[in-house]
Amino acid sequence: MGYSLDRKNNYSAAQQPSDLHGENKLKKPILLLLAAILTISASVTRADDDHAYTQGPVLIVNFVRTQPGMFEEYMRYLGSTYKHLMDEYKKQGIITDYSVYQARPRDPQDADLILTVTYKNMAAFDDLQARTDPTAKQAFGSLAKAASASADRGKLRMDVGSQMVRQLILK
Q: For 71-86, what is each residue's pLDDT tens digit?
């Protein structure tokens, strides 16, 4: 009768089992890996498309109220020591920019100056103190003198508050 019980002979060349040389064992993990890579890349692409913006630089915004009659004195400090420090941090790549804004206070407790410092991203805050301390030591002579100078500036101004904001860049 034309039937064969020999399994080897029941397969055509295209149907021959390939696990004789371990090929099947190798194909399955490769296919799974390829599927995982495609899934991950598709989800990352989809995540980028889900937002109408990208995350941009991070700003620290400080609100300052100068003491009565001390505006010009505080501006002299900002124009000398503060400017020197910020320019050095910028040169070292620690910050990307800084600015000083004059504001019209709405009441006696409101800021009349706004100071901003711009950082490339949130990662810029990693080990920030370790990267800024050497410049502060150079400018003031020591960290203790830098802290003392900061306390002395309290006679010129009052910190009203601060805020961290991140720019969102619309696509």
A: 999 999 999 999 999 9
Are 110 and 160 in contact by the 8 Å Cβ rule? The answer is yes
Number of other residues whose CB lies within 10 A of the CB of residue 78: 19
Those residues with Cβ within 8 angstroms of residue 114's Cβ, 6 or more apart along the chain or in another chain: 61, 62, 63, 64, 100, 101, 102, 103
In one-letter notation, the amino acid at residue 122 is M
Half-sphere exposure at residue 88, Cβ-oriented, CA atoms within 13 angstroms: 15
Euclidean distance between CA atoms 81 and 84, whole angstroms: 5
Q: Assign residue 141 a region: left if phi > 0, alpha if psi is -120 to 50, beta otherwise?
A: left
pTM of the entire structure?
0.70
Computed from CA positions of residues 127, 98, 92, 142, in that sequence, does the dihedral angle turn out positive or negative? negative
The tokens for 60 are: 């620290």
Q: Which residues have a Cβ under 8 Å from the Cβ of 39 and sit 6 or more positions away?
A: none
